[in-house]
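Protocol step 4 of 5: obtain the predicted structure for the target chain.
Materials: sequence only (see below). No template structures provided, no constraints applied. The aim of this step is simply to have a reference model before the mutagenesis design in step 5. Sequence pasted as it appears in the construct record:
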Amino acid sequence: MPLKLPVQIPSSRIHGAALRAIAAVADKAPASFALRLAFSQQLGIDALAELPESDRGAAPAEARPLSGRAPRPGDDHKYDPPAPAAAWPRSAVAYAARFKSGHLSPRQVAETALKDARELATRLGGPAICLYDDEVALAAADESAARWKAGVPRGPLDGVPTVIKEQTAMAGLPVRAGTAFLHLEPAARDATIVAKLRQAGAVILGSSVMTEYGMSPIGLNPQRAMPRNPHREGHVAGGSSTGSGVAVATGICPVALGNDGGGSIRIPSSLCGVFGLKATFGRISRAGDTYGGTMATMGPLGASTTDLASFLDVISGVDDADPITRWQPAPPAGGFLAALGRGVRGLRIGVWDHAFQDAQPAVAQSCRAALAVLEKGGATLVPVSFSLGPVSPAVGYLSIGLEALAGLRLSMRTHKDAIGKDFWITLATLSAFSSTDYLDAQMLRARLREQVAAVFRDVDLLALPSTATTAPAFDDEDARGGLLDAAALHGLCRTTMLGNLTGLPAGSAPVGRDADVLPIGLQLMGDAWDEATVLAAMAQLERDGAATVIRPRDAAASLPGW
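Step 4 output (structure tokens):
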């Protein structure tokens, strides 16, 4: 007998009055179970139970990434890193050159970035930076200026502006994680990676806005005024690292910190037309970050591959405060920045055709054109497949969703009225799943990890679109009240979850735009601990002009001396 509900659950986008009506009953049976059935069907979760037992392995005791083989040696540096563009984008390398020559000072750059960020917020409908740290940023800029004047900069990020996603602790600012109820008091100390960035001389402008608890890839959050896509009005910027993506795309800063539990670096990178890199799970310390679990890790979003590599060189490494960082091997010889010169000759790139066939035609076409450039550069394209690949999104939704739910049980009891209606429905839906559902997903995940490790015994990289669609549209009501859209979510996440389930490094490179000038990203996934090969291939695309950060319609003002 079908469940009788006080409201009807739409099969398409849920927003407005329907969202409010469903939220009012979402945590009550039978509504939560009906929501579970509806979303399970729309997201392919219901099909997992029908998979044969042979598709399941033993649930892993830890989330340590599996390697197909040892990382490639780095003794074949043939090229210089991609040269910075003359005018756009403004990379950290270009800033450093102007600091060295005296044409710009870190103080000028910081003041302009803070001004531009506030001005752009009015044009984009919301700010990239939700909490500013002007006094500390300007003091850091002055200290950097003194080092540059003395000829003793601390490295490629000295004096360079950056922002930190609002789920990572910065001393003196709340760690709100996109919510209205978490950590309203200022953090007492910096997260490990924030402390590393300060030590490297980076000028941290403030906290970048994100979706509520990072649980939406779309880029809307009724708890915040969220910035739209800077390339086209009426389209989202992606999430959950929304502000970091917008800050880099608009030129507020050349590189920013993101966190990726299901695509939250690669999705806004792709939708905003910038570079992004999710590091191997365990490469970067999560000490001082809000989100734990077995899916999420951190990484940079940047205006160039040089920005990504320089940032990763600073923030990666073993940290006694985070035990999973002890898994990592030493970084490549010369660091990740040196890896940009390797080129791609001799690389075997596995092309997962299923992901291309499942993408919008414009997305597939742009990504295949970029792969043709890598092939021309000496890489070999190899078709690959693995039987559990098509169900990896569903396994990912259960894995990250139920881990997040476990961490938010107290908040659901004590802060119900402070949780956005769309996020409340998500949590209520997840509450209808059981521990058996989670453990079964982990057994499927174990076999999937083995299948992907087997693929990497034959290839060096795995290629697939960063997102299957370009940026979805939204309206003012969606921005104010929130929305749930299973089709949009699936279009953004169905090619990203694989990297989180396996813990493997994955980058997004901006390789085109569709007919509506919305950016398109190519995703390159590497074997465990082999960020160097991912960066080398993205650098080759950048060097050959196949991956380019294009100035959006809404961008930061030009700097004097640029």
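Step 4 remarks: The chain has a mean pLDDT of 94. The two ends are 69 Å apart (CA to CA).
Proceed to step 5.
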